[in-house]
């Protein structure tokens, strides 16, 4: 298949907004990177989105879910139009859009996952074919349905030293381990930013702890960290995955705002460090992506918990943000869904036994044609 331009769209578990990215790929190699854009959710939409998390979607039930789904789909379409304008491209120049949607429930042990987002509506509004519903086939087959980005991590890391680990700290944190022989292992390490964000909203009215500033002034309650890390999830062998709310801000119940922020940040770092016991070999480098890499306190705690120093200028660095190797951290997940959409169109695997626990390599996604286009 020829290389094509694809657009990837991501609305992550942090519920901060939408990321959009252009990627040129044949679904195996990455041939080029295009424009990127982000659009934060208005506070009112974020609150409505928060209100439908889980099942059956709060007091409004399916009607509330449908209303939010239409609203976020239209927001995605508006961002696509702005991205095309920035890039000087027309809808006809784009082969496919990879539309993750937003996860409102993820219970793989029940063979259930749900990402809202109307693929058909998005295809009509944008005039571009859309692939969405990336996780369902894997979960129905017995896989975890997450994480989905490891194959893209491997495509980007072709020329980097191995073993390599990519730690993505979004609402939930996950890790991709890439071996010297291109083998992959991936799983959710534990909570990411979600409990910190929820704590901040409840105690300060702020959506997140910018730069880790509040956590930097607090004291870590190590007893609470140890109690969180004693949960059975951390001893389970991967692949494994989590729902956004499997770990909550209640971990820090009873603490002062700054101490709670510090403790929840330490739990995220300690959970990531606990993942090392499951890796086939120690990584030579840890690349940190997701919003968590902007949290200086979290990056420091990661370094401390892993027993290394964050020193981006040093040649033998272990923990660094992905920008240190030229990757676009704020666009990485959106790029991944552009890549996965092209793979889905080609019938290539999106998940592997070693990334989601699927019984065999599986493709997935649902293709929505655009009116007037093949």
Unreliable segments (pLDDT under 50, ≥5 consecutive)? 308-317
Spatial extent as radius of gyration: 20 Å
The average pLDDT value, as a whole number, equals 92
Reading side by side through the largest sheet, how are the strands ordered? 3-2-1-4-7-13
Oligomer: single chain
The amount of helix comes to 25-40%
What would you call the shape? globular
Strand segment count: 13
Q: What is the succession of H and E elements?
A: EEEHHEEEHEHHEEEHHHHEHEHHE
Distance between the amino and carboxyl termini: 16 Å
How large is the count of helical segments? 12
CATH class of the largest domain: Alpha Beta
Overall CATH architecture of the largest domain? 2-Layer Sandwich
State the fourth-level CATH superfamily of the largest domain.
Answer: ATPase, nucleotide binding domain
- Biggest sheet: strands, sense, closure? 6 strands, mixed
Strand content: 15-25%
Give a written overview of the molecule.
This protein has 374 residues and is an alpha/beta fold. It has two domains: 4-143 and 331-368, Nucleotidyltransferase, domain 5, CATH 3.30.420.40; 150-329, 2-Layer Sandwich (Nucleotidyltransferase, domain 5), CATH 3.30.420.40. Helices cover 34% and strands 21% of the residues. It is built from twelve helices and 13 strands. It has helices spanning 43-51, 61-87, 119-126, 136-140, 150-156, 194-204, 213-216, 222-229, 257-274, 296-306, 332-346, 353-356, and strands at residues 4-11, 17-25, 30-40, 96-99, 102-107, 112-116, 130-132, 164-169, 172-178, 184-191, 285-289, 319-321, 366-368. The strands form three sheets. A six-stranded mixed β-sheet has the order 3-2-1-4-7-13, with helices on both faces.
